[in-house]
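Annex B, item 7. Sequence and C-alpha cells for protein A, then protein B.
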Amino acid sequence: VQLVESGGGLVQPGGSLRLSCAASGSIFSINYMGWYRQAPGKQRELVASITSGGTTKYADSVKGRFTISRDNAKNTVYLQMNSLKPEDTAVYYCNNEIDLTGRGVEYDFWGQGTQVTVSS
C-alpha cells in the first residue's frame, strides 16, 4: 500500500490550497483518514480526520477554515484549506487506517508529507 500526497506549495496569507492523498495497493477498506502537520521544532499534530461514516474532527486552530472530505471510490482524502495563516506553515502528512483483507485488522499507513508554506 502506498499513500501519495499532492497539492502543497507556497501561498500568501489569506489564500487557499487543496491537499490530496490517494491510497493505492491491495485495500479492502479504509475507515479512518486523517491529516497531520509538523512545523519545525514542534510535535506532529492532528489537523483533521474523517471516518468511513463521515464523522469529522478538527483541531481548534483550523475550525471554520479547513474542510476534510473523502472519495471512497478513489481511496482519496482531501483537505481544503482556506484563509491560510503563516502559522499554518508545516509539512502535512496523511494517515490512513486500512483493512487489507476484510478480516477487521487495520494497519496504519503514512504519506511522505507535503510542504505548505504561507508567506507574503
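Protein B:
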Amino acid sequence: QVQLVESGGDLVQPGGSLRLSCAASGFTFSSYAMRWYRQAPGKERELVAAITSTGDSTNYADSMKGRFTISRDNAKNTVYLEMNSLRPEDTAVYYCNADISLYGLTRRYWGQGTQVTVSS
C-alpha cells in the first residue's frame, strides 16, 4: 500500500536549519509530483513547496522562497525539504503528499507529519 513517512522534525532556534525527509513506498515514486504542506496550531494546512516527478521544476509559497528548498532522490524514493533561516512562524507539523493513481483511481495520500518547532 502507499506509504509516506516523514522524518527530521525537531526543536531548532530561530535562524537555524533543518532537513526534512519523506520516504515513499507502494507506488512508482519517479512518476509523481510531490508536495510539502504544513499546518500550524489553529491554522489551515498550507502548501509549502512542490516538485515535479523528475525534479526539474519546483514551486514555493511566497514566504518560503529563498529559505526553503525542495528536492528529491528518485533512486531512494525520497523527497526532501531543506529549511534555512527558520522563524518562529515556521513552527508547524510538516506533511508530504502526492496524488497517486492506483487501480484506476486517483487519491491524495498524506504522511503522518513531522513536528518542527522554532523557538529560543
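Comment on protein B: The radius of gyration is 14 Å.
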